[in-house]
Write a structure and sequence with these properties.
Layout: E1 3-8, E2 18-19, E3 22-23, H1 24-41, E4 45-48, H2 58-65, E5 72-79, E6 88-92, H3 97-111, E7 117-122, H4 126-129, E8 134-142, H5 146-154, H6 156-168, H7 198-207, H8 223-237, H9 246-265, H10 284-296
Parallel strand pairs: 1-4, 1-5, 5-8, 6-7
Antiparallel strand pairs: 2-3, 6-8
The protein binds zinc ion.
Length: about 300
């Protein structure tokens, strides 16, 4: 079984190419992680330069990629030019025949999906030049061309399968991930094959004001849920990819708790406590001293901080 390094271009402070609010950094993370999932489901090991929207220099990426003896490196990108240019192209470093063969295979697989064929090309890119492993850099359609974006969005699973197939030959795209390694995130296409309860996630999203589509909380992570996650992330998480992972889930929980405690304030049924107050201090030290005296005298107390 193979050992692969996937680099998802851009991220964090560098959105890559952008078009109508769409970021290359998000697109390549999404399709790349899907490809990694397929590879793993087929028994291969994939290390990734990033799994979140974070900033990485090219040098950091290749340093990381050169730590192990990877069979190949794939650096995922999307193109941009003049809103008219279209199609897919896969780059390899000039003179690397192994990388070139891989680029040709990948190009062939990607064109089958419907992208315009711009051909497998060579270029002196950092990621290709500095990688010890065989390396290819696919440009997965033009982000500033609506037709290419439609192909990308409609066929994202097929793109992931095509890339995986070009790397390892036959793949079983429908094989679920190995149960020993449950994913800690959920994304479009998932239906319960994760440690995350999708239905609960949907209910929580609805509670904080993000509808998940007409089907409601049905336990199926489709386009509506993806949009809800994406919009929630834009508002609260900073950096959005429509994939609900640990960070998004943690922040969602916090927002829910905040909402719940806000509600509690006007809830007449809330539990009442009766507090005995003996003294207030402007100075924390004096409060601590007073508390120590109370303790000596056998009374338990606590310091309650409030604004007058
Ligand atoms: Zn790029």
């Amino acid at each position: 079984m193979g050992l692969y390094y996937f680099d998802y271009g851009h991220g964090g402070k560098d959105p890559g190419a952008t078009y109508k609010g769409r970021k290359e950094a998000d697109d390549v993370l999404k399709v790349g992680m899907k490809t990694a999932a397929i590879m793993r489901a087929n028994g291969h090991t994939v290390d990734e330069s990033r799994t979140t929207d974070k900033t990485l220099s090219l040098r950091q990426r290749t340093n990381d990629a050169n730590k192990k003896n990877y069979d190949a490196l794939v650096s995922f990108h999307r193109n941009a030019f003049n809103r008219k240019a279209r199609g897919v192209e896969v780059f390899s470093f000039p003179g690397s025949s192994g990388s070139r063969a891989m680029a040709l295979r990948m190009q062939k697989e990607l064109v089958k999906i419907g992208f315009v064929d711009r051909g497998a090309k060579t270029a002196n890119f950092h990621m290709l030049r500095e990688s010890r492993a065989l390396a290819v850099l696919p440009e997965l359609g033009f982000i500033d061309n609506s037709a290419d974006n439609k192909i990308f969005d409609d066929n994202i699973d097929k793109i992931a399968e095509a890339i995986a197939r070009s790397l390892v030959g036959n793949i079983n795209a429908t094989k679920p991930p190995a149960p020993t390694k449950p994913r800690n995130y959920v994304m479009n296409g998932d239906r319960g094959n994760s440690i995350i309860d999708i239905k609960q996630l949907q209910k929580d999203l609805i509670k904080v004001g993000y509808g998940v589509g007409s089907a409601g909380a049905d336990g199926i992570f489709g386009k509506g849920t993806e949009t809800a996650v994406y919009n929630f992330q834009r508002e609260y998480v900073g950096g959005a990819n429509g994939i609900a992972g640990p960070k998004t889930l943690r922040i969602l929980k916090e927002v829910l708790e905040r909402k719940a405690s806000d509600k509690n304030k006007d809830n007449p049924d809330r539990e009442l406590f009766y507090r005995v107050v003996t003294e207030s201090f402007e100075n924390r030290n004096n409060a601590e001293k007073y508390r120590a005296e109370l303790k000596k005298a056998g009374f338990d107390s606590f310091i309650d901080i409030y604004n007058k």
